[in-house]
Design goal:
Elements: E1 7-16, E2 19-29, E3 34-38, H1 45-52, E4 60-65, H2 80-89, E5 91-94, H3 108-118, H4 124-137, H5 154-166, E6 172-176, H6 184-201, E7 204-209, H7 212-218, E8 221-226, E9 229-235, H8 236-241, H9 246-253
Parallel strand pairs: 3-7, 3-8, 5-6, 6-7
Antiparallel strand pairs: 1-2, 1-4, 8-9
Helix pairs in contact: 3-4, 3-5, 4-5, 5-6
The protein binds adenosine-5'-triphosphate (ATP).
Membrane topology: Peripheral membrane protein
Domain ABC transporter: 7-252
Keywords: ATP-binding, Nucleotide-binding, Transport
Amino acid sequence: MSSQPILSVRNLERRYGAFIGCTDISFDVWPGEVVAIVGESGSGKTTLLNCISGRMERSAGTVCYRMRDGRFPDLGDLSEAERRFLARTDWGFVHQNPADGLRMRVSAGANVGERLMAVGERHYGNIRRTATDWLERVEIAAARIDDQPVAFSGGMRQRLQIARNLVTHPRLIFMDEPTGGLDVSVQARVLDLLRMLVADLGLAVVIVTHDLAVARLLSQRMIVMKSGRIVEQGLTDRVLDDPRHPYTQLLVASIPES
Ligand SMILES: Nc1ncnc2c1ncn2[C@@H]1O[C@H](COP(=O)(O)OP(=O)(O)OP(=O)(O)O)[C@@H](O)[C@H]1O
């Protein structure tokens, strides 16, 4: 693992008018690590994720990203073209609702292939071969390559969205409740797949979830948010086994016994 963070957030704040979406947020993400952001509904998780992935303007603070050439600029200092390039190549974003991250009316193969074309791949045979490989990696039969996601189940759509995001070998993936909209049995399969792929590819991931079981399964480090602020952060096992902040203790105590 590199000795330098891939993402560094300092004193981040986002206001909605006078209302604070999140404030006083500082943390680092290291290459190859999965960081979970947890907290109840309205605690500011999605606001934070959108700000650090450049999808939403911040009101204050810095978000620096380690470029492949070693530079560590604030996202706000990048040109629009550089930001678009990052979003297409170095980063992925897995939405809770697959329809937000897929093109529902083009084929599964094209959904994966168009990310490859965005990074310069032009050879039709290569694109189709790589798309087929990726469909199989996410357990979608190659025979479905020409089907549109509208004809897929929720779990298949989510797996396709994951393939579309990972095909370009990004370095950092943002995930917003990636299993939130799925049935429990389907969730387990998607989580297993995510865990395997993230480890195989050595990805850095920032995942937002309200589900502590998801955080336990996927993340090494955890950030707990309440009312727009971080109340506790640390290694996931430590936070869950020995929560120090009363709010984290409450969250942990509310996990149903399985
Ligand atoms: N566009 C907006 N305008 C005004 N207030 C907003 C806006 N988006 C979010 N908020 C407020 O900011 C706070 C944080 O919202 P956010 O969606 O980040 O929370 P969350 O933890 O992701 O919640 P959930 O798990 O329900 O998605 C909430 O009180 C919300 O009402």
